[in-house]
Design brief:
The complex is a heterodimer of chains A (293) and B (262).
Chain A (H helix, E strand, L loop, with lengths): L1 H7 L7 H34 L1 E2 L2 E2 L2 H7 L2 H35 L3 H15 L3 H12 L4 H8 L13 H25 L3 H9 L4 H29 L3 H6 L7 H12 L2 H32 L1
Antiparallel strand pairs in A: 1-2
Chain B lengths: L1 H27 L17 H8 L1 H34 L5 H9 L6 H15 L5 H20 L5 H12 L4 H29 L16 H9 L5 H24 L10
Helix pairs in contact in B: 1-10, 2-10, 3-6, 3-8, 6-8, 7-8, 8-10
Classes of the chains: A mainly alpha (293), B mainly alpha (262).
């Protein structure tokens, strides 16, 4: 109680140790919880991955990284994640732009936001299940494509990378629309008007004013979508029909059926490192683009 | 002008794509056939009756709801003091702490789930409600933190000082001044936390058993072997829960996303 009292009466310039002493009563519970149930479990995974036969060893990593199979699975995983991110951006950006800049009725925008949140608030499993029905051999997608003559006979979607990408794009689309849309909503429309007044075409205005200003929102959305796509387990598991393996499935197998925490730990850390490195690279490229404009 | 027409068509096509699978699930849950059919052939609510008659579904709905409520309460209790400390004090390591508390947002849930399975096994908590709960608290805390933090502004701080100057105790100030001001952020953060816990599969799947299971995990295990209209009925219920949650969000704090007003 007294600690809270001193915080409200804090002088403007508190020294660092004083600030820490005052923050400590507030921080104790959250820090203790996150250390106990987040940091320590992750360290346990890391240390198990670095042990084999009771001694420190890199054997688990050798087993992961020297096996061509793992590289193939990583390639599939990140190819699916990259394709998903690309498709999500190409579909989500126009929708975000339309909802923020074109739709003038608040009621319509509100309804669209509700429809955008509805899938986001529904489990991956339910949404993937919807696509299992739609993409089946006699599902609505095949029936329609055959019916309008685009296809001669039904094609197989389930059990292909294409099917997984369709499902993941569906799951992750709302994230990018919200990220880009919220960035767009904070761009001052008078900047675009100024650009138009100075003789720029709508396209030039978009490309040189609007797009660079919402780039940070786009990058944040892209990074989120990519990491979620690369670490997705449920959607690939349901839409792959057992025919395609992505990296998170290997992790799940090790912990749920094989119980090999050493090898499983090495797989977990590998996925984590690859994802973080690619995210850092994407952030760098994105920031470079932002500075240039 | 052509660009605008193309934009309109793309936008509406994407909206249709977003809503189609949900319509298909709800439609298929009403079919009178014993296999999944869309468009539904005949209309019946029999599959919902079958679901309610199966106590394991009812139990899983109960577990999911209890877990999501407890995880949300835990997240609020952890995120609120953390947000106050981060907004109010310039202590060393603040950025690192914030990154630690926010990192569950980007960490693969499969990795965290595996880690918690191994760790809780060592603690003797393997595959228990407690093991599920601590994991869910970790993944939903960032949602509350993220939405409360921006509301703890210097202006809000000034009112808090005024309250203290006028003789209010710290508890009174928190309850009567701070809480009403951050209510919006807290509510929307809590709703996002609730729904993220309610729909989670990838974390829960490691610590559930045949008896102790959440509704998404139960659906996941079921769908891999059998697909029938009962599954569509259960899925439709979860879609309804999502819809109710969104309406609650709209009624309490309003849906301010994508709005031009800053």
């Amino acid at each position: 109680m007294t600690a809270v009292l001193t915080t409200t009466a804090m002088p403007p310039a508190a020294t660092a140790p004083t600030a820490l002493r005052r923050a400590l009563p507030l921080l104790a519970a959250p820090v203790a919880f996150f250390v106990a149930f987040f940091a320590v479990p992750m360290v346990v995974v890391l240390s198990s991955s670095l042990a084999a036969g009771g001694a420190p060893s890199l054997a688990n990593y050798a087993r992961v990284l020297l096996d061509q199979y793992h590289w193939d699975v990583l390639a599939v995983t990140f190819r699916i994640a990259a394709l998903t991110t690309l498709a999500v951006t190409l579909l989500g950006y126009p929708l975000a732009y339309y909802l923020v800049r074109v739709v003038s009725s608040n009621a319509l925008r509100r309804s669209c936001v509700i429809l955008l949140l509805l899938p986001l608030f529904t489990s991956n499993i339910v949404r993937s299940f919807g696509w299992m029905i739609l993409l089946g051999r006699n599902g609505l997608v095949n029936d329609t494509l055959v019916g309008i003559g685009l296809l001669e006979r039904p094609v197989r979607f389930l059990g292909t990378e294409m099917g997984i990408v369709i499902g993941l794009v569906y799951i992750l689309l709302p994230f990018i629309v919200l990220a880009v849309g919220n960035a767009l909503a904070t761009v001052d429309p008078t900047l675009e008007e100024a650009s138009a007044d100075l003789g720029a075409s709508p396209f030039t205005t978009f490309w040189t004013v609007t797009f660079p200003l919402c780039l940070p929102g786009l990058i944040a959305g892209v990074i989120m979508v990519f990491t979620l796509a690369a670490s997705a387990y449920v959607t690939p598991a349901l839409l792959s029909g057992g025919k395609i393996t992505v990296f998170p499935m290997l992790i799940f197998q090790q912990y749920s059926t094989v119980f090999d925490v050493h090898y499983g730990g090495a797989l977990s850390i590998t996925l984590l490192v690859f994802t973080l490195v690619l995210v850092a690279l994407a952030g760098r490229i994105g920031n470079g683009g932002g500075d240039r404009s | 002008m052509i660009a605008r027409v193309v934009l309109r068509i793309v936008a509406w096509a994407v909206m249709a794509y977003l809503i189609l699978p949900l319509v298909v699930i709800v439609g298929a849950s009403l079919t009178a056939t014993s296999y999944l059919a869309f468009p539904p052939q005949g209309l019946t609510l029999a599959w919902y009756g079958r679901m309610l008659a199966d106590t394991s579904y009812v139990a899983a709905f109960g577990t999911s709801t209890a877990l999501a409520l407890a995880a949300t309460a835990g997240a609020v209790l952890l995120a609120l003091p953390a947000a106050l400390a981060i907004a109010r004090h310039d202590f060393p390591g603040k950025r690192t702490l914030l990154s630690l508390l926010m990192s569950p947002l980007v960490l693969p849930h499969v990795v965290l789930g595996a880690a918690l399975l191994q760790y809780c096994a060592a603690l003797g908590l393997m595959r228990s409600f407690a093991a599920l709960l601590v994991g869910h608290v970790v993944i939903v805390t960032p949602f509350v933190l993220r939405s409360v933090l921006p509301q703890l502004t210097p202006e809000q701080r000034a009112l808090e000082e005024a309250s203290a100057d006028l003789g209010a105790g710290p508890f009174e100030t928190f309850l009567l001044v701070v809480l009403p001001q951050i209510r919006g952020g807290l509510t929307s953060g809590a709703i996002f936390a609730f729904i993220s816990s309610w729909i989670n599969v990838e974390l829960s799947i490691f610590n559930t058993t045949a008896e102790l299971t959440t509704i998404p995990v139960k659906l996941f295990n079921y769908v891999q072997y059998t697909i029938d209209p009962v599954i569509a009925a259960v899925s439709s219920i979860t879609i309804a829960v999502a819809a109710v949650t969104i309406v609650l969000l709209d009624l309490t704090v309003g849906l301010h996303v994508l709005s031009n007003r800053r």
